[in-house]
Amino acid sequence: MKQVLFSNDMALLQRWESILNNKDTQLLDDFNELFDLKDSVVIFNSDACENKSEVLIDVLVKHNNKILILDRVPDYFKVQKWLAKGIKGYGNVIMSSSYLLSAVDAISEDLIWLIPDITTQFVKNFVGHEEPKSHENMLLDELTKKEREIALLLKEGYTNTDIAMSLNISINTVKTHVKNIYKKFQVKDRIAFSMLFK
Q1: Portions of the chain given CATH number 3.40.50.2300
Q2: Fewer beta carbons within 10 Å, N or C terminal of the chain?
């Protein structure tokens, strides 16, 4: 299977290429060329994708590519989302040569390969029967109990008046809590607030 490497960092590309040392390895320097790939092992760092990683993953998976994403700082929540979208491997941009070779071998065989730190987190969550905290729960953890109640109602589209009636508190109390919630989340209005939960 052809191996395709993409990064906006030439030093990384050269490093990966020298480790893989394979005549079927192709280096790309144009992000848009990635969308044309089919039936390849595609290795890229997410920083190089101009915030288009999600779209790129969808297209690459649709074209039967096997994807290995390498990040400067591996992120457990990112990899959860990307695994659900169909990537096959995830690691660190400067992981050891043995890890990179192992990752490419595994995903070429249609197996999943994860850097050990991330694998450990998955195992801890699985064995401990702890559900990983959702993005929503992590956000709400920053709030007091009353703020959390109000935030959940805000998220559902309740108006300040609706919230006051529902929780049997004054409208001014609701406004104070809403102001504090916005401040903690560093948002200015309901639209920005609701976007946190998308």
Answers
A1: 2-127
A2: C
135-195 maps to which CATH number? Answer: 1.10.10.10
Helix residue ranges per DSSP H, 47-170: 53-62, 76-85, 97-108, 116-127, 135-140, 145-155, 160-167
Q: Which residues belong to CATH 1.10.10.10 in the chain? A: 135-195
Q: Give phi and psi for 51, each to the nearest 5.
A: 60, 25
Rounded mean pLDDT of 99-115?
94
Q: What is the residue type of 64?
A: N
Q: Which residue in this structure is represented by tokens 């916005």?
A: 182
Q: What would be the CATH architecture of the domain defined by 2-127?
A: 3-Layer(aba) Sandwich (3.40)
Computed over every residue of the chain, the mean pLDDT equals 88
CA distance 139 to 168: 25
Please write the tens of the pLDDT for every residue from 150-198. 999 988 889 999 999 999 999 999 999 999 999 888 888 888 888 887 7
- The region that residue 189 occupies, defined by phi over 0 for left and psi between -120 and 50 for alpha, beta otherwise, is beta
Q: How far apart are CA 164 and CA 131, in angstroms?
A: 33
Phi-psi region of 168 (alpha: psi -120 to 50; beta: other; left: phi over 0): left
